[in-house]
Specification:
Helix content is 26%, strand content 27%. It is an alpha/beta fold and 342 residues long. It folds into 2 domains: 2-147 and 311-341, Medium-chain alcohol dehydrogenases, catalytic domain (Quinone Oxidoreductase, Chain A, domain 1, Alpha-Beta Complex); 152-288, Alpha-Beta Complex (Quinone Oxidoreductase, Chain A, domain 1), CATH 3.90.180. InterPro entries: ADH-like_C (IPR013149), ADH-like_N (IPR013154), ADH_Zn_CS (IPR002328), ER (IPR020843), GroES-like_sf (IPR011032), NAD(P)-bd_dom_sf (IPR036291), Zn_alcohol_dh (IPR050129).
């Protein structure tokens, strides 16, 4: 099969389009013919960073996978040849720990992440354990479906399961990347008043189209005052923070007493100093949403199939142009995912 292998960590030029042996399904593996694989920010970070022992060798990136079942291991369950499927971000979870048994398999200590500890979807074929796949609903195409397991499902987790957003609440979403743009749509779908923040004013019209009731453009990242004004209530009930770092400080200033802040990402990696009194004296709840469980993926797929969410795909490229896909994704010029087609 053809695959893109990380031969040199650092620049996109280190991605090499090569021929390698076809994987063979064993145990509970499902062999998937990849029809589409999204390019996530995590892919960029893994490629840029020095290699570590935990990374699969050879390293094939990609965890946003949709495709067709073409092979089954002897103990695989729930799927047949020809089924259309989409992956969670994982190749394996143990299935029996306390996290796996309570819809929190994203925290399984033994999980293997696709495109990290396991071979990923920048390939024509990929192996995924049966409990890390979902059936693809009728009417949802492969390209659209490929990104549901990561940015859409994680946004669903943040808004619905972790943020517990209710009808009529005011919700702020920071950062208009993959998770943020879908969080705007999901918060609107569940009946919230949605405020989106961005540094780039060119994104404002699209964010309105996606469902934002108000868009705060803050090139300097100082959005708290404008958000309080836009809320009409002195602040928001819930913050979905996909940026982290300095944005968290602004989120604290934008949320009302008893509000909830859901941390979903940390773009800068910079430490944040916080006075604990600014949290506990105001009755704030700080939560975190980690990835997408299989159930959350199923729920997100239902919303996509019902037309409540539009997965944002900016561009498709052939698998052989993975390096260009990374360059485009790093440019931050696109509103939506780049998706590779084997």
């Amino acid at each position: 099969m053809k695959a893109v292998i990380v031969r040199d960590h650092g620049e996109p030029s280190g991605l090499s389009y090569e021929t390698m042996d076809d994987p063979v399904p064993t145990g509970r593996h499902v062999l998937v013919k990849v029809h589409a694989c999204g390019v996530c920010r995590r892919d960029l970070l893994v490629r840029r960073a020095p290699p570590t022992r935990e990374l699969h060798s050879p390293l094939v990136l990609g965890h946003e996978i949709s495709g067709e079942v073409v092979g089954l291991g002897p103990r695989a369950r729930g799927f047949q040849i020809g089924d259309r499927v989409v992956s969670t971000q994982r190749e394996y979870v143990c299935g029996h720990c306390s996290k796996c048994r309570t819809d929190r398999e994203t925290l399984c200590a033994d999980l293997r992440f696709l495109g990290n500890q396991a071979m990923g979807g920048y390939a024509e074929l990929v192996l995924v354990n049966d409990d890390n796949l979902c059936q693809l609903p009728e009417g949802v195409d492969y390209v659209t479906a490929s990104i549901v397991g990561c940015p859409v499902g994680t946004a669903y987790n943040a808004v619905c399961d972790t943020g517990l957003v209710r009808i009529g609440e005011r919700v702020l979403v920071t950062g208009m990347g993959g998770v943020g743009t879908h969080a705007v749509q999901i918060a609107k779908a569940v009946g919230a008043f949605v405020i989106a923040t961005t540094r780039d004013g060119r994104k404002a019209p699209m964010l309105k189209e996606l469902g934002a009731d108000a868009v705060v453009v803050a090139p300097d990242g100082q959005f708290a005052k404008a958000v309080r004004e836009a809320s009409g209530a002195g602040g928001v009930d819930v913050v979905i923070d996909t940026v982290g770092g300095p944005a968290f400080q602004q989120a604290l200033r934008a949320v009302v007493l008893g509000g909830r802040i859901v941390l979903v990402g940390d773009v800068t990696g910079k430490p944040v100093e916080v006075k604990m009194t600014s949290i506990y004296r105001r009755g704030l709840e700080i939560r975190s949403a980690v990835s997408t469980s299989r159930r959350q993926l199923q729920m997100a797929l239902r919303m996509v199939a019902a037309g409540q969410i539009r997965p944002l795909v900016a561009k498709t490229l052939p698998l052989s142009e993975a390096a260009e896909a990374h360059r485009l994704s790093e440019s931050d010029e696109l509103l939506g995912r780049v998706v590779l087609i084997p």
